[in-house]
């Protein structure tokens, strides 16, 4: 007799619209014994907020400064043993209305601010000329030691600069001192810095910047600059400029990536706003050339402005040799995106959290509605060398163990920057901007310093596909991976037809599955159809396979059902939870 009770049937599944569900006595007992089934692997271990009255930052910040519009890690600028941070406040009125500033924050080991320096019109040693409305600080990138003086240098976008016509945009190269002040500067725009012709009014050159490594082998890293309103492929399709810099910050050469230049068959559409964010990926595919991530927040796959991220595999000349798109149900990504999420607003590369040899990519979606309208969220993507996603985990007001106070319209994850291991605890830190946070006044802005899980704390569930056909049947092949310290521990793969939030919280941890009849089945009857291999012991590599399998000619009325799965790792004798994974989706198609 099928266990699916509804107007349609399928062995092992029950409809998410089934009648009210009570947890079984077995599950209730397990909650009392050690909470095995309610503990999760959180993305987040800790968080610190920096705002006008939090985290030791004195500012001053004013209303509508949008502090946190951009962030960049500067390494240990002042030599005190702790990493430091640059933060853009693009609507600050220092020197004139909306000229913008950059704050240099000297951090302590806990992520708080020990001291700060303001850089802007007439302050912080900056001698460049800014105009009202330039929005200096629109984007930030650590250039390394460009001029060889032993101190890192900083690229700063000013996307509304009008050297080449209204809002054509510009980038400033700032040569810093160890105290955070500016020793010298060089402007790159339509009329300065050797860029030459090519920018048009409204391009917003400088909306994103990323130092991408040495493409041409001249010993100087190249700078990628986003112009998301470039019109090569139609209005606001977007483009990237690859700039070959001199040690003095001038442009020695350039190339362009757009729908009509340097990227054959790009697939960009008008309105995509490609290159609204950029991130250097290192040599992802192992061909000896750095690769690049680029956000396209206006991409409509999954709904209007749901957003997308492009993984671009570059040649030594800066052209695109291959690409992978990550979007709703595309590129291995199975997370739920909604219209207007603007997935891809920000990007950052953190370390190899899961120990597979590939760094993870963090993607901001600052208009995600978890917890309220435009609260914002970020996604941690576990990539393969091909750029395809093999697992993901969301962090928001309702997911990923985040306990901070996020409010509607905060725009959490408008900006992102990896900070490596700030406090020496073995965890990577991440700076996350929420530029419309209201601490101290409306839209003053804030930056969160998040401590991410260690490699051994980051089990990942990944798959070969995000869909299974009802008519043809098929398998979603699943792989469970954890840190090496969990080899030999038992695991249990659980499922839900009722999405991932709010999930279960037991023993202070969150499991990203909602209890329902399918959850009950996977809990009480492991390895029952449609799951194969859902209970067992992790092998010597701390891995295990499983699958979600449907027979041919399954009921077509199930089309559109989405199942989520996550696994738990525990100690067999004590029932102590060791870790749990992200939730991974599979969609049932006709």
TrEMBL record:
Regions that span the bilayer: none
InterPro entries in the cross-refs: FG-GAP (IPR013517), Int_alpha_beta-p (IPR013519), Integrin_alpha (IPR000413), Integrin_alpha_N (IPR028994)
Keyword Signal attributed: yes
Keywords in alphabetical order: Glycoprotein, Repeat, Signal
Coiled coil residues, start to end: none
GO BP annotation list: cell adhesion mediated by integrin; cell-cell adhesion; cell-matrix adhesion; integrin-mediated signaling pathway
Gene Ontology annotations for the cellular component aspect, listed alphabetically: external side of plasma membrane; integrin complex
Family annotation (Pfam families): FG-GAP (PF01839)
GO molecular function: integrin binding
UniProt protein name: FG-GAP repeat protein
Lineage: Bacteria, Pseudomonadati, Planctomycetota, Planctomycetia, Planctomycetia incertae sedis
